[in-house]
User: Which sequence fits this backbone?
């Protein structure tokens, strides 16, 4: 039970939505691999967050709660797809996927990430986009820290093998940083 | 961080940050939240039906085969509603309804329900106030609700754990609900209580059911109540329908596994078997009076029992509402529409007398109550307004 007025809840939630939705959208895009699935995932997560809004007692942790709802929703989605034995296209058609062209390192890397199994991709996104620790990632995905380590290690090893012959992979860090500034 | 890890980090940021993503309108969030709520309510019913053992449905009359005492029905009309804004504005509803968290009585009196957004599962006038069943969380505790009694604008009693379903008699004078007599211990010592909705007009009657049974009142009169029971005492849950009064033992209604609506005057019950076939049966011997089309589910008998409102799901979001002659099965009128969403459960419709059916609908223009006449007329009973999380709910249907 709560005594909050619906208008207050709506205004409060909408203020948060305007300020913070873009971070959820970007994470969703990386988790799902395409804008349409990301939009659907974000809408479901936002709806569940809205339903629970008045019950969130630690208001300073709303962002973390929202991310948890999003990741949980994504886990449910891939598990449902697995139960239905669906085969989803993991590689985006507009990314150039695995074709490594001039200055196309990022596309090649993204093509590799998009082709990872859902859980492994989630580990990579949470560790290297959200910058979560191994423990935080494990907690969010409901897996052990050891699994996070092994999943990340395998993904990085495969990534090196996949795009290791690309010129950028052997560049020094300074070159990579300069490339990121362009 | 290794070079590979840094490259990975930069690639992910570049991918995410360069993609233009449109903000989600608040309206879409509210709509999706309400879908989730509705889906949760629907899941409650499906979960109950899926868990039961099969109940045979005797062969009966097919649709359109007139019974011996049938009278002519109005001509079949179909109202195709593309948009709520197409309909003219009519008189306000003559029955009680809930809009999100406001209970509106037929005389226009409003009672604010101080509950979580979208949590109202059912409501009924009771003991001089409004009894509300709420669910605190979507998707869990199937069939469990908090029950709160509100007076004019204030909470007067919190009944804590109980059932989600409430029933109101056709004349609005009696209501029934269930609660737990043993704290919140699920489905032990369930009390089915029914009594007058006003104060000082008689004492409520109680039945204590056996442990392990979930009880859902479906219909109520001054001295009888019809209810569904999910019996989990024997391992595999079984679904049954009963009627009872103050004196005799409960009588099982044969031929259906779950009842949707009751015509107490004629002694008929509309409901479905576990295989989804829906029928109208005689409550005394279970003989089938009418068999509905595949995929068609009963919603509500008219107060005089002459008509039966049904829903046919063309898809999950916008079932067609049909009013049939309850004896012959003839279609009297139909409300269809490509975009307008109707949730298809019993609490989304209510009869206003026996000539008009109120239907809760929502589309791009907003949400509203639509009044469908058996003469084929259609109008708005409430103006189309921006959708709320709880939406419209018609208690006691």
Assistant:
């Amino acid at each position: 039970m709560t005594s909050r007025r619906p208008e207050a809840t709506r205004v409060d939630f909408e203020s948060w939505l305007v300020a913070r939705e873009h971070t959820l959208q970007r994470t969703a895009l990386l988790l799902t691999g395409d804008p349409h699935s990301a939009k659907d995932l974000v809408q479901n997560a936002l709806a569940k967050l809205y339903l629970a809004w008045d019950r969130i007692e630690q208001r300073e942790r709303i962002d973390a709660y929202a991310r948890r709802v999003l990741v949980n929703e994504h886990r449910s989605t891939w598990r449902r797809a697995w139960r239905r034995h669906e085969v989803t296209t993991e590689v985006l058609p507009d990314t150039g996927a695995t074709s490594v062209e001039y200055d196309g390192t990022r596309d090649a890397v993204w093509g590799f990430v998009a082709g990872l199994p859902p859980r492994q991709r989630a580990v990579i996104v949470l560790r290297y986009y959200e910058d979560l620790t191994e423990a935080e990632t494990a907690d969010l995905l409901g897996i052990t820290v050891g699994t996070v380590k092994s999943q990340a290690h395998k993904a990085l090893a495969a990534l090196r093998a996949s795009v290791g012959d690309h010129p950028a992979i052997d560049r020094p860090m300074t070159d990579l940083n300069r490339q990121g500034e362009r | 961080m290794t070079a590979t890890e840094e490259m990975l980090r930069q690639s992910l940021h570049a991918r995410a940050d360069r993609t233009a993503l449109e903000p989600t309108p608040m309206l879409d969030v509210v709509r999706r939240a309400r879908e989730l709520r509705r889906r949760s309510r629907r899941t409650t019913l499906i979960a109950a039906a899926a868990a039961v053992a099969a109940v045979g449905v005797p062969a009966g009359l097919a649709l359109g085969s007139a019974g011996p005492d049938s009278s002519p029905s109005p001509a079949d009309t179909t109202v195709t509603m593309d948009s709520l804004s197409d309909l003219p504005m009519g008189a306000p509803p003559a029955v009680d309804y809930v809009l999100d968290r406001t209970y509106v009585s037929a005389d226009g009196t409003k009672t604010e329900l101080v509950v979580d957004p979208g949590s109202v599962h059912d409501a009924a006038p009771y003991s001089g106030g409004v009894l509300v069943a709420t669910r605190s969380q979507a998707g869990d505790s199937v069939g469990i609700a908090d029950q709160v009694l509100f007076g004019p604008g204030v909470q007067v009693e919190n009944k804590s754990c109980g059932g989600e379903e409430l029933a109101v008699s056709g004349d609005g004078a009696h209501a029934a609900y269930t609660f737990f007599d043993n704290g919140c211990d699920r489905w032990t010592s369930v009390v089915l209580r029914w009594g007058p909705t006003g104060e000082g007009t008689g004492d409520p009657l109680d039945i204590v059911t056996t442990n392990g049974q979930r009880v859902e009142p479906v219909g109520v009169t001054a001295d009888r109540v019809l209810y569904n029971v999910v019996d989990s005492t024997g391992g595999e849950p079984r679904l049954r329908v009963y009627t009872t009064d103050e004196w005799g033992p409960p009588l099982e209604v044969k031929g259906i596994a779950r009842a949707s609506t009751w015509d107490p005057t004629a002694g008929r019950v509309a409901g479905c078997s576990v295989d989804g076939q829906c029928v109208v049966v005689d409550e005394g011997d279970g003989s089938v009076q009418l068999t509905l089309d595949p995929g068609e589910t009963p919603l509500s008998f008219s107060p005089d029992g002459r008509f039966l409102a049904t829903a046919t799901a063309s898809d999950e979001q916008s079932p067609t509402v049909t009013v049939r002659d309850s004896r012959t099965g003839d279609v009297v009128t139909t409300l269809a529409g490509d975009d307008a969403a109707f949730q298809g459960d019993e609490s989304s419709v209510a009869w206003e007398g026996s000539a008009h059916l109120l239907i809760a609908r929502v589309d791009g223009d907003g949400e509203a109550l639509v009044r469908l006449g058996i003469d084929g007329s259609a109008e708005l009973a409430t103006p189309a307004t921006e959708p709320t999380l709880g939406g419209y709910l018609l208690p006691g249907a």
